[in-house]
Amino acid sequence: MCRLKFHIIILTIIVLILIVSLPFLEKNYRPAAAATAGISLTGSVQTDFPNSITFKIKAQSDSKITQLRLHYTVDHQNFASVISESWAQFTPATTVNTQWFWDMRKSSLPVSSAVEYWWSAVDAAGITSETEHATISFDDNRYKWQSIIESPVTIYWYKGNLAFAEALMSAAQEGLQRIKNNTGATPEGNVRIYIYASAADLQGAQLFAQEWTGGVSFSGFNIIAIGVAPNQLSFGERAVPHELTHWIVGQITFNNYGAGLPTWLEEGLATYGEGTLSPDYQTALDYAKENNRLLSVRSLSSPFSAVPEVAYISYGESNSLVTFLIEKYGKDKMRQLLETFHQGSTYDAALKSVYGFDQDGLDTLWRQSPGIK
Fold it and tell me: Is the terminal CB of the chain with fewer CB neighbours within 10 Å at N or C?
């Protein structure tokens, strides 16, 4: 009886030892393949603004690497998240060093655009791996930028004193208030305004800039770039609210149909947002009225002429058309018109829906208004 009790005690001790040791055995004696299998991925990024972004990757595995893909998405206004994929070129091996070169001559990005990216890999054994998501900003590091902030605007500049930047900020805030008062339009989110020290510097920040480009609004990116020398402050005080208007109107009218605004409405609102019409545009408009050179509203729906004299008339007339609509029919109608374009409406259909006349009807009514006849 004592011997039986002794055996039971010994058996109990053995069972307890096995129970305590089991986690240790599981942790330290898994199959070697499971413990060592996997793909090591190490990446880096090199930017060359405004020309390119180079995404580099080093991949290592026990089996040959057979696939390497870069996945990326650009932060801009869109109805759906769009993830692009690019396949790196390489010869399969257990260690691979390769890259994907984003040539901005094919699809350029504005200054400070944010790109989220990650790599994925597959080896010959069918093992997959993916890096963590990272974000790169496509910055213009050729200049030492300073910045000031007054919500929703951040102004970046590199030439000129603080008073210069503050004057541009005042113009921005006044422009936002003017746009709100006269059209009912208010911005969503924040905007970054990059002030280049000259038109040449601005054009150098864009691969396909026109030689006359003095400012541009990348509405979907919430980015504006303008060329303003410190001794051209008066130009900057007009250009900043002009481009801000483009930004806000672009937000309001963005749609999934690719439908835009007639050029006369877009540029008319932008010049209206400046507060007073540029003397050059006013002189050209007066000349056109006095010499029967006014352009039809329908012709102003298309991009303006590259001929300076005709372009000035186009800007002046567009401003007059928008002023006519706002002063005669009110800001609520103008906001309704912008919302109608947001639905993807055509030019004539939008005007008819809100005002009861198409572009030809607007042309007739405008020419009969006191400011024109």
Answer: N
